[in-house]
């Protein structure tokens, strides 16, 4: 069976890098679609593909989240995975595009669903902001907050994989934001005003392969706390590299639904894996006693034991 992908906003459907990457299905909010229609649409997706992975932002309105869980509950289906992500809007679209690429590979549904958590560690998502006074999802110190009120202030902010904030035009900006140590491409979405720093300075410092410009997602201003922004995300573009990342992680079988998965929790039934038992050390070897009339025996061999193998169930490869 194949695995279908669904999103809750058309802004999360970035243009695919090739003709073969499938689209994701856009689910409508409750005020635009009756529950009966949503149930029928989801049932059709399950009949066509077998499994459905829905990626949605953690900031999704609560009524929409309730609709997703209601549909899953009424269908009584463990073949639907609901995956909230904490990424900014542009990075959420990039994550969905990577999952769309991987959906053509030979991964089981449980592995593909759990791969979303893995791939977030390899997305470098940020923005150039005209103000951080209302930024709530990245820590802002008192000094930066006060400088937001100065005319012409601009800030470069990294939200993932680790938060960072620098004020552009100052000595601290010379070192820039911490960038990826692997090959990436940069996707930039300009608001008003557009930022040359995001399209010229940042790509040179991060040594990205190419820069692509896309429209700014509608939810970006709310996520970043200002309409004066340019959003960007650096991501691995090569599907073969993404495949190797996912394939290199140890796989287990979910004790709840029986799906093959990676990581410590099933994306479909949310059953956690039991902790792995540590490897039992081998007993120490003993030296044989020397013969009374023979030559002196050499030193006894040192005791040995098998090393305890760390649990490789973590998401990071």
What does this structure look like?
The protein is of the alpha/beta class and 317 residues long. It has two domains: 2-122 and 247-262, Rossmann fold (3-Layer(aba) Sandwich), CATH 3.40.50; 124-235, Hypothetical Protein Tm841, Chain: A,domain 3 (2-Layer Sandwich). It has eight helices and twelve strands. The strands form three sheets. The protein has a six-stranded mixed sheet, with helices on both faces. It is globular and about 55 Å long.
**First-last Cα distance:** 26 Å
Mean pLDDT: 86
- State the helix count: 8
Spatial arrangement of strands, main beta sheet: 7-6-5-10-8-9
Shape verdict: globular
Order of helices and strands: EEHEHEHHEHEEEHEHEHEE
Please write out the topology.
Layout: E1 2-7, E2 25-26, H1 35-49, E3 50-57, H2 62-75, E4 80-85, H3 89-102, H4 109-119, E5 124-129, H5 142-147, E6 155-160, E7 164-167, E8 185-190, H6 196-206, E9 211-214, H7 220-224, E10 229-235, H8 239-247, E11 251-253, E12 260-262
Parallel strand pairs: 1-2, 1-3, 3-4, 8-9
Antiparallel strand pairs: 5-6, 5-10, 6-7, 8-10, 11-12
Helix pairs in contact: 1-2, 3-4
């Amino acid at each position: 069976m194949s695995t279908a992908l669904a999103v809750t906003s058309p802004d999360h459907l970035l243009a695919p890098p090739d003709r073969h990457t499938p689209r994701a299905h856009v689910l409508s909010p409750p005020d635009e679609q009756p529950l009966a229609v949503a149930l029928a649409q989801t049932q059709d997706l399950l009949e066509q593909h077998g499994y459905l992975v829905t990626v949605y932002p953690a900031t999704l309105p609560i009524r929409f989240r309730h609709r997703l869980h209601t549909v899953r509950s009424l269908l009584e289906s463990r073949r639907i995975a609901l995956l909230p992500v904490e990424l900014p809007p542009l990075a959420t679209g990039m994550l969905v595009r990577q999952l769309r690429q991987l959906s053509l590979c030979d991964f089981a549904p449980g592995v593909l669903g759990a791969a979303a958590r893995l791939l977030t560690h390899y997305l470098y998502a940020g923005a150039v902001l005209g103000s951080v006074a209302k930024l709530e999802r990245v820590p802002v110190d008192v000094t930066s907050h006060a400088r937001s009120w100065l005319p012409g202030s601009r800030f470069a902010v990294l939200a993932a994989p680790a938060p960072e904030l620098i004020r552009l035009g100052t000595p601290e900006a010379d070192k820039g934001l911490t960038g990826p140590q692997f090959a990436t491409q940069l996707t930039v979405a300009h608001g008003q005003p557009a930022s040359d720093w995001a399209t010229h300075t940042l790509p040179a410092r991060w040594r990205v392969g190419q820069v692509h410009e896309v429209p700014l997602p509608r939810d970006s201003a709310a996520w970043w706390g200002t309409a004066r922004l340019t959003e960007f995300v650096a991501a691995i573009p090569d599907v073969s590299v993404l495949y190797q990342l996912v394939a290199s992680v140890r796989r287990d079988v979910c004790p709840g639904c029986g799906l093959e998965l990676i990581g410590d929790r099933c994306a479909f039934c949310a059953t956690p894996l039991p902790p792995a038992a540590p490897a039992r050390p081998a007993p120490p070897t003993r030296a044989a006693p020397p013969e009374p009339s023979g030559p002196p025996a050499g030193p006894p061999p040192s005791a040995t034991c098998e090393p305890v193998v760390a649990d490789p169930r973590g998401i990071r490869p």
